[in-house]
Amino acid sequence: MSGVLVVMEQQDGVWHRMSWEALAAGQQLGKELGVPVFAAVLGQGIEKLGAELAAKNLSKVHVVEHALLKQYTPDGFTAALEQLIKAHTPGYVLFPHTYTVRDFAPKLAARFGRTLISDVISFHQDAGSPVFVRQMFQGKLNADFRPQGEGAVFASIQAGAFRAEKLEAGTAPVETFSPQMEAAQIRTKPHQAFREAARAVDLTAAEIIVSVGRGIKEKDNIHVVEELAQALGAELAASRPICDNGWLPMERQVGSSGQTVSPKVYMAVGISGAIQHLVGMKGSKTIVAINKDANAPIFEVADYGIVGDLFEVVPALVEAVKKAKSS
Amino acid sequence: MKIVVAIKQVPVRDSQLRVDAGAHWIQEDDLSFEINEPDAYALEEALQLKEKHGGEVVALCAGPARAASTIREALAKGADRAIHVEDENLRQLDTLGIAHLLAGALKSEKPDLILTGLQSDDLGYGQTGVVLAELLGVPHSTIIMQVEVDGAGIRVKRELENGFFQHIEIPLPAVLTIQSGINKLRYATLMGIKKAKSKEIRRVMVGELGAAPQATAVLERVYLPQKSKQTQIFEGDAKTVAAQLVEKLKFEVRVI
Question: Which B residues 145-174 touch A at CB under 8 Å?
Fold first, then answer.
């Protein structure tokens, strides 16, 4: 068929929101290349999801149904998609860059002799072929990657890089695809997903968040940012390394493995701004960054920035906030 | 249990990076290098599994000659021996090529378990472990937060999104990619550093491993990201910048 195939993600009949962003990326790539766009969704009993996809501007929707696809396994998803791709030979296969996709898409691409171009933030046409842009060094640098050689190009799309609102509506035929699979092919046995404990802290409701990262250096320094949070009436949050070290509880973590927040003000203190953190907070209305490294990626999303030593800046800020509140 | 840990050497975190003259990579001359952080957690997990269940830990590293220092450190921390796939031009390969070399170097090893970090801090492709599993024909799981040996197999805790986790049972041999923070990293002891000097490092040349597949995604150009937002940077001493920021928060953002 050539064209662009977008592999959507769902769980228990609920779409992963990043699927729509990947689909928007697929529509854009299809338009730029002048080729048809297809979507696929995998699972069992997912006709309803197929019908939803049919209302988008697509050439066809593939509903890939099998009892062994009810619960995600890398072996099952790879086997099913390998058959779909061999049957329809798309030129490009796009995925949302989710935890699940990270688990199976590299394996699928390797089966076709390709390397997945992962975590893509944009693409453009150059000399008649698409060039994919991805971040390196935790977002400090960007890099252009050009696909080479024969066969489908596999790429995953970073959260927030394309806008689901830009999706074009339409009508598309739905086709069911039944892969040939046997239980013996699936070597891993997954159990139900669970949460460690009910979340006591709901950061998503906070108007102001003061968030702390590696720059705080040690646990005994946490009080420095705690005082700022208190002065502002803000919730205290953290980047992953702080919670990994047990300096703040896991439930205060913002980022891809923690909570996704969009407060009025997000103040990032000593946070460099790795991609995994940015996806959890870049929707904030106003972002303030305090960091000693002027090249830290956090400044790319910040509205206000202070380049300096947080141990000097934050106490001064606490004083200034207190003064402003009392005047 | 025989455990292989695939580790990578990357520039030290917080290095000031500069793009090289050809805009193909970064200037490496004035950089220091260290073990990729998630790989350090993979190594620690391997050492703890060995302490609990016995066996051997083998560090496996594809990298240029300078990677020897990172390999030595892994040996000093407790790895029993190491394999260094040494080549100065590995950057011409992509994940598929690197995984091909790693798989080739493991041909005679037959490990029960292969651990590696979930991604590298430099390229950040996040897929070497998964592709290695595919090339070796063994099962895998990613972003692992806990590993328990369970009879002939293992039971792992995989991190999902939004604070969820999942247990998965996997037969051995298998490949796992380890999440940072799964354990507490140890330091090399003086005794460990001394012992490391006599531990075996098997050097494997790329030519011995059969032609690696050509890169299917070629890194054409490296550059500083374009800013998507206008950032207002406040300048001056701490007191001045604090006052400027508070004024904005009070009169424009209106949260004070």
Answer: 159-171
**CA A271/CA A256 separation, integer angstroms:** 15
Helix ranges (DSSP H) in B119-186: 128-136
Measure Cα distances from A239 to A73, A214, A289, B83 in Å: 29, 8, 13, 35
Q: pLDDT by residue (tens digit) across A273-290?
A: 998 899 899 989 999 999
Residues of chain B in contact with residue A284, where contact means CB-CB under 8 angstroms, are none
Q: Is the dihedral of CA B33, B36, B42, B45 positive or negative?
A: positive
Partners of B101 on chain A (C-beta within 8 Å) are none
- List, in sequence order, every residue forming a beta bridge with B7; answer none if it has no partner: B61
User: What is the three-class DSSP state of A62?
Assistant: strand
Based on the number of CB atoms within 10 Å of its own CB, is B9 exposed (0-12), middle (13-18) or buried (19 or more)? buried
Identify residue B101 by its one-letter amino acid code.
L
**Secondary structure of residue A326 in the 3-state scheme:** helix
Length of chain A: 327
| Mean confidence (pLDDT) of chain A | 95
- With a cut of 70, say whether residue A199 has pLDDT above it: no
Amino acid at A245: N
**DSSP-assigned letters across all residues of B8-31:** -EEEPTT----B-TTSSSB--TT-
CA–CA dist B233, B256 (Å, integer): 20
Alpha-carbon distance of A307 to A272, in angstroms, equals 12
Ordered alpha helix ranges (H), chain B: 37-53, 68-77, 95-105, 128-136, 190-196, 238-251
Which residues 215-234 of A are in CB contact (within 8 Å) with B? 232
- Tell me the per-residue pLDDT of A12-32, one tens digit each, with 9 for 90 and over: 999 999 999 999 999 999 999
- The encoded tokens of residue B88 equal 């100065």
Q: By three-state DSSP, how is residue A153 classified?
A: strand
Please compute the mean of the pLDDT values over residues A165-172 and round it to a whole number: 95
Bridge partners, residue A209, by sequence: A235, A266
- Contact status, residue A25 vs residue A117, Cβ threshold 8 Å: no
Residue A303 to residue B232, Cβ atoms within 8 A: yes
Query: Which of B94, B139, B246 is the closest to A321 by Cβ?
Result: B246
The answer to whether B137 faces chain A, any CB pair under 8 Å, is no
User: Would you state the pLDDT for residue A198?
Assistant: 65
Kindly list the strands in the beta sheet with A153-157, ordered across the sheet, starting from the edge strand earlier in the chain.
A174-177, A60-65, A37-43, A4-8, A92-96, A153-157, A117-126, A129-136, A141-147, B217-223
Closest residue of B to A120, CA-based? B125
Q: Tens of pLDDT along B59-103?
A: 999 999 999 999 999 999 999 999 999 999 999 999 999 999 999
Most B CBs within 10 A among A122, A131, A132, A136, hence the mutation to make, goes to: A136
Amino acid at the residue A139: G
Question: What are A114-160's pLDDT values in tens digits?
Answer: 999 999 999 999 998 999 999 999 889 999 999 999 999 999 999 98
Say which residue, B127 or A201, is predicted with more confidence. Answer: B127
